[in-house]
Fold each of these.
Amino acid sequence: MGSTEDLDYPQIIVQYSNGFLISKVMFTACELGVFDLLLESGKPLPSDAIAAGLSASTMGMKRLLDACVGLKLLAVEMTQEGALYRNTEISNVYLTKSSPKSQYHIMMYYSNTVYLCWQYLADAVREGRNQYERAFGVSSKDPFGAMYRSDEEMLKFMAGQNSVWSICGRDVLAAFDLSPFTQIYDLGGDFFNDSIPAAELYILSKILHDWDDDKCKQLLAKVYKACKPGGGVLLVESLLNEDKSGPVETQLYSMNMLVQTEGKERTAAEYSKLLESAGFGMIQVKRTGKLYDAVLGRK
Amino acid sequence: MGSTEDLDYPQIIVQYSNGFLISKVMFTACELGVFDLLLESGKPLPSDAIAAGLSASTMGMKRLLDACVGLKLLAVEMTQEGALYRNTEISNVYLTKSSPKSQYHIMMYYSNTVYLCWQYLADAVREGRNQYERAFGVSSKDPFGAMYRSDEEMLKFMAGQNSVWSICGRDVLAAFDLSPFTQIYDLGGDFFNDSIPAAELYILSKILHDWDDDKCKQLLAKVYKACKPGGGVLLVESLLNEDKSGPVETQLYSMNMLVQTEGKERTAAEYSKLLESAGFGMIQVKRTGKLYDAVLGRK
């Protein structure tokens, strides 16, 4: 940064400017079913066959495929019959609908919901609140009412959450020895209004980041009350550094919490404080080095 | 790519998914005037002073500033009075409005026009045509009528073009010895309908990429007719590799031509063919390694 070379030609600024083009090329290839068709075909295909198979224009599809090659999401082979395209291994595993590690649903949620909300990022920063009203014409006072504004939207969001879990779940669950806990309750649903059953371990996966401190304390107090003695609560969240200087992904997700919810991403100390205020103690923190980290508190 | 590590955790897929978040954080910090305020202040400022100075929420601004730190567009210093933010050198040069190399206008064009059009990338690929009609409700048959649909839009677009020229112009003009040409005409305006004056050198900067082959041939024939003997034409364009396997930036811009125009990015051989079909010869190609390359043809 700041070297003469960077100042002569601002590579990172060009790269950041192109960020949304890259996201949309990948999302669109997923949405049109490019990776699924290539997986099913079992052999490399020319662009016109892919276009025909997906009812797309040959001219548009050819350019999309070439951009995917540039992004290393596809590989191309020049043959006597012309260019033949095939999936890279990473696309087979993560970008096809049928793969157990498919990220297809979270991509569709990003592409068709989050992308639109982020058109209003400047308004979100000015006003300090989410932008569901501007983006979708639904009230932003109840962010989950807005997110779940139709069955289709709710399913998209939930399928998206599952996509993320498929790549981060194992590390998070391996962060601590959870074998002492035999009764585990994965918190979900309308937990501010519904009663919470007694259990030994409560998993709150990406729940607290949706809410402000007051609502988090209210929810944790309710969990503490239901929790059996010796039990605990496992928070699955993306942790900010204590000085909030990074990681950059978590900073970006905290901006997304601003645009879409009433919450924010927090540091390990902030989560510990919330847990302590509800009565939990012996707090342990484990960073996984991936998207989601783990914080364990005991009753 | 394809290593076991990549397959366990798809770093590039996460990175590509976050691309639009990164673009929008940078665009929004520009739009709200963060870099201008910090340049003018001449000293590092706390987040609440920046929020107050820009009439933004303190909570939203703090998160935006931290994300800019993560992206190395700002630097932060922890002091007794709390965190103080300042521009990095690259932000002073490229992201402030007043800098001679400012990219502010192209960013605003990207953020408020291109970003919206790209919401319809899947439709553009399906239909093989630009998406002005869906994005802005204006007819897509005349892409420049659509781009210049208001004086404000036209000024935004032109200021954006100037931003790019300020970082790439020098390399492009230094690509060939242009000193023999004393009468130079920079083609712009309504060149399909207006007459083109006689000159020794015509510069067509990012013009041919907006049009299909037929229109390009038509325009080049008109230029050839006007051109003095011994004169020439200089094309300033971003060149694709001959096998279209890259560069990835040019592939992305070719997708943008699909979404926004009737044109595409081309290879050096494709531009040479267009020039030859209009009568130009002695074609020379110079890649600059930056966004825009140069192709010179002689009459």
Amino acid sequence: MSLLVLGSIALDTVKTPLEERADLLGGSASYASLAASFFSPVQLVGIVGEDFPQENITLFRKNRIDLEGLQVVPGKTFRWSGEYLWDMNQRETRSVELNVFENFSPELPESYRSARMILLGNIAPALQNHVLDQLTRPHFVIADTMDLWINVAKEELVRLIARVDMLILNDGEARELTGETSLIKAGRRIREMGPSFVAIKKGEHGCLLFGENQFFSCPAYPLEDIHDPTGAGDCFAGGLAGYLASRQLDALDPSKKQEISFELLRQAVVEGSVIASFNVESFSMDRLRTVTSADIAERYGIFRTLSRFEGL
Amino acid sequence: MSLLVLGSIALDTVKTPLEERADLLGGSASYASLAASFFSPVQLVGIVGEDFPQENITLFRKNRIDLEGLQVVPGKTFRWSGEYLWDMNQRETRSVELNVFENFSPELPESYRSARMILLGNIAPALQNHVLDQLTRPHFVIADTMDLWINVAKEELVRLIARVDMLILNDGEARELTGETSLIKAGRRIREMGPSFVAIKKGEHGCLLFGENQFFSCPAYPLEDIHDPTGAGDCFAGGLAGYLASRQLDALDPSKKQEISFELLRQAVVEGSVIASFNVESFSMDRLRTVTSADIAERYGIFRTLSRFEGL
């Protein structure tokens, strides 16, 4: 089954203490689509300008990412520039040029409207709601967000949260959204806002997954060096959603349709963590261009070893 | 097998946003001994003044904590007073009265010198080294420490670290001791200083255990409310060490002596986390006074559920 992915597509300039690179493929939809494509075909919804390099289009196509929903319009592609401080834990945005993104109104092609598995990647919640309005029978909707939208579009975000099956956000955002210091309380509070499932990302500390009276603590992969954290959250969401889509063999055939159980979501959270852990090993999507299914399966096994312990 | 526990014994005054209580039994050795006693007998090494309440002595004795190594001397018991801020994550020390602690020089009774399993609880590293000097054939030595000793007694602490089998410290302390921001690098660096094993406690994010080319990420128990975090780290160390001692049925009989393997340490880290998670549910050691072996076994099972996920 295909996964529909909405989000930004950008050309990034990233500076780390060791290196600076420009015109990198970036944006939430780019990262999430490529991450998801390891598990399932993707239908991409986004916008770029006429300056968007053909090699990126080629990369998407090569990875079974359908581009019927990609608008290519006169003007320049969205640009973002950021700098990581010496410990790679803090990031400063240096500049943002909205360009063609400024007037983006995602209109789904007819063939996308019946999508069942949806990832509303990090983008303005008004656009996330607008895409949701166009879907005829969504089966499972995942939304990712960021602190910016809590600050500038909270009402619209709260309206979105009430409509989705799963919300993904990081620890600071969960605390900001709920006013709770305890992440355990924050997870419960967000579930009360609508979603059956909530994933709270904690960076180097892994991820917490909340369901109804169910809880999963996913470890972080013990990386010694992080070369570029950009897109890690988008890869997590994309890998997670792509894995879920891959397990829904045919949503129209009940015998092949798997329930989105908490057990399945545990695995999906690990798959998302695996893809994100690869992504931060290189700039932009360089590592994702070379990683293989065997690499992913091997690291999934390592995640099992990390947190395994015997009964008494 | 008995566990030898060295550390402080205190009368604490603790203030949280909801409550303030005085003259509570506290100190690293008190918490660690009571935590360990769920798994093994304890030989306690510490000092108190003549004002130390008899009911605390009774509590120790009732929990198979041997007090031959407890010095009761003229003067007042060590007192500590602290306050937790509203989110319970930050603590301010309000006052410290060293009292009898000021001239403490732990001298082991003859029967303690042959101890095989040792927990050097949080106390000045000079005292930890001094106890280590008196042991005739230690099998496995665990040391706990805190930021104070990194700041005021680093040389002595580094000398201690080189002599122990396992070091326990928290994330901030690991970063301060090594100058590494990455906890993964910090864990490796501390192992290079001597100990075969390092446990880095991360509070609400659980704990990391490092061995030679081995790594374990232990989840935190998802508590919504913490009533008093005092002693959580000491309970973790005590539970861990007590569990290891309980698995060494008879160190003199090779057929009954179990190797301290990484597998066994994974379980010990979880047992320590279980005891610590109970301890923070009430003031002082109130919760540990009522918790049962069945409670502990049940929560160990919950820890397994928290981080479990299926293979692909």
Amino acid sequence: MYFDDFEVGYRFETGSKSLSEDEIIAFARTYDPQPFHVDRDAAAASIYGGLIASGFHTLTIAFELILGADVWNEASMGSPGLDEIRWKKPVRPGDTLRVTGEVTEVQPSQSRPDRGRVIFRYDILNQHDELVAYYYAIQLLKRR
Amino acid sequence: MYFDDFEVGYRFETGSKSLSEDEIIAFARTYDPQPFHVDRDAAAASIYGGLIASGFHTLTIAFELILGADVWNEASMGSPGLDEIRWKKPVRPGDTLRVTGEVTEVQPSQSRPDRGRVIFRYDILNQHDELVAYYYAIQLLKRR
């Protein structure tokens, strides 16, 4: 889908992906080695009561799922940014994540007639349909 | 440092990290396989004129550097969210990134006297001191 194909309220859903404890620890060892992401015992003693995924891990998996849905990929010119990322519930080993996307704004470029911005709200849900995180993404898309 | 040790305007700098082409492609293959992140030829033909790092890769490297600076790690209770992530310039193979952090807000918790929120603005800079990205992070920290 290209810029012109989107309107406010358009929705899509991604596939899903499960996270193992090993994957949570491996990602966090490199990018976010806080004790509650990499150390099972320290995590059990923390306010989280057990290992939880790095919030950055949750975001990157969500983005992997969003690209896998292949909704706007062909028209993508990248993204200038994200807004209001909020982590609402911990993601734990064995959880299965999926994402719903909804268009909240559609802005043709004032200066460049070949492109526009579509703003998506992405809700990241677990296998209990609980919201674990959400964010808004500004997506630069080619026009038809 | 604990919540009580921070005031608005407090600044710190991280170490630096270089990104190879292989690292850029490996990260993007898993999390962000858009052509301009994983395919040298497609990237050359894109608006970016060559391979660029996934914005999520830039963010995770920045966070790795921030944790490496070990400023608030001991007091960390995690983060509820990030605001206004903006990618300003492409990050290319061979670039070296570093981060400057500055406290923009300090908010003791109203309901829980053992903690507070510190908001940091993080600027991600390359080896030419160009701003490649910035964001605001809400950091939950224990009080002394």
Amino acid sequence: MKKSFLVLSLLMAVILFGCNQNAKQLEPENTIIKDPLPSWNEGPAKKSIIDFVNAVTTKTSPDFILPADRIATFDNDGTLWAEQPYYFQLQFAMDRVKELAPEHPEWKKNPVLQAVINDEIDKLLSFGEKGLLELIMTTHAGITTEEFSQIVKNWIATARHPKTGKLYREMVYQPMIEVLEYLRANDFKTYIVSGGGIDFMRPWTQEVYGIPAEQVVGSSVKVAFEMRDGKVVLVKLPEINFIDDKEGKPIGIHQFIGKQPVAAFGNSDGDLQMLQYTASNSKKSLVLFVHHTDSIREWAYDRKSHIGKLDKGLDVATAKGWTLVDMKNDWKNIYSLNLLN
Amino acid sequence: MKKSFLVLSLLMAVILFGCNQNAKQLEPENTIIKDPLPSWNEGPAKKSIIDFVNAVTTKTSPDFILPADRIATFDNDGTLWAEQPYYFQLQFAMDRVKELAPEHPEWKKNPVLQAVINDEIDKLLSFGEKGLLELIMTTHAGITTEEFSQIVKNWIATARHPKTGKLYREMVYQPMIEVLEYLRANDFKTYIVSGGGIDFMRPWTQEVYGIPAEQVVGSSVKVAFEMRDGKVVLVKLPEINFIDDKEGKPIGIHQFIGKQPVAAFGNSDGDLQMLQYTASNSKKSLVLFVHHTDSIREWAYDRKSHIGKLDKGLDVATAKGWTLVDMKNDWKNIYSLNLLN
């Protein structure tokens, strides 16, 4: 695993919230009467999702899968919400540095943190993985898990994307929200399996995606047990515990879930191993890449992007006949329809 | 964390199976008409469980807890099933050594493995933590997670306890099975949080306890991602990944579940930190130790036991007024009533 990927993937993941609607499951009768994926244009991608669900949930089907084995895993950044021009969690870390800077005059001597304070993103990135790691450790450690959770909640409720002006939590993909709801209505258990920070995602995934904290797998720092005033707190340490990217995704799935998924959704080479693991299941599986092809409504990028690079994954998907979602043509809507503004 | 605890706790956990009945949830009407805990004698322990459930599930109660926050965690060895004269997982490891010995003539030169082959338990234990670690690594690594799962399934279906003659999977505590069912019937999510091996428990917890693999937290070795014949396999490595004991229990709960429990059940000092973490929840909580007091029907042990030592925990529980289950007087039955023989 390349170190730069480790660090970059640790920077993945952010928030979205916004739409309580998202968390609601479709009523069974709705799945029969209504189109379960109204934001999807008719085409091979939509058809492959619906055909898969029908095949594995119909009791008389040779591909029937018991509900207990209906495990579906979703990457977050670039799959459930946007990730350009850089992972939203990086913006969170930068915002946090600026917020804390007045209390830390010593940061003025630190070139990495100084670049953040001065909004010099290119300079920040020029420090490479070491700089990004320092940024994460400065902003994600030294406080309790409960304090961190509250900081994330406050940020996600208010922070806005520099280009779209939307709240980050509004930049979730409506078509994917529909897939989550459709799968849950068919007794799938939906999980996030992201390179982003697990403690960064958990405070808002229930509200935004209908995915409870215990169904979120992500990267993490170590924590220490402490008693304070007779109560147990867990303190986040400036030390990597687990990187949930590439080979780490199947490993994280095994560790956290203990079952091999039958459906997996990603958008980058960082998700390839998770999709391969899912395709290796002896049961019927659905394996899908979201391909970012819409430069107008979102961003168009793949083989050469520094964020969410989809290169080898594109080759494997084509060779194996996996589902490729052409965002521009397959999706009627991009972002959540439950926008707050 | 003391090293000896690390190793001992890695040796915890085994199997039980047997009773599909266990997995069934009580129908709501049963919980109203019938005693939800028929194997419990009336007394303060039983009362504290029922009072807690009523207090947190009654909508008009000041202690009402939303279903999403009803997280209950259970230690396994000594809490859900027996653990004497030594953790059942140790017997599994020893049985595995004997099974594999014919293919490994070189083991004859290894004093640890030779002690196992010769049934010299005391000699094995005399090698201390280093010996036990070697035993675990010899038997729990070098194969794929799927192969290991199958080996565990075969063992749990057939292996018998040296003293009782029962299948290990029959040595689950009926009163605790009733607590699991009672909590689930009241919308609690029940988890195992054990020092035992996660891959050792997951193959049978659904059948025995009604707890799915994804709700089992335990100790683990590292695994490696490999492609074999075009399919992904995960290979268990002879290297500790996580020890889910003592301080490790709250840390494991945070990592795997991401929510602070409101109910926790243990039987030893290895569970104390999990119980303290649960008691630290700002919500109403139920915190309970099973005290092994029945030398006739089971085993009587606490402060001085080398397995499942309950010493500091007993002091803290008494000082804090936590629930203490007196196994001899509180439980009408000990083992599963769904015995196969």
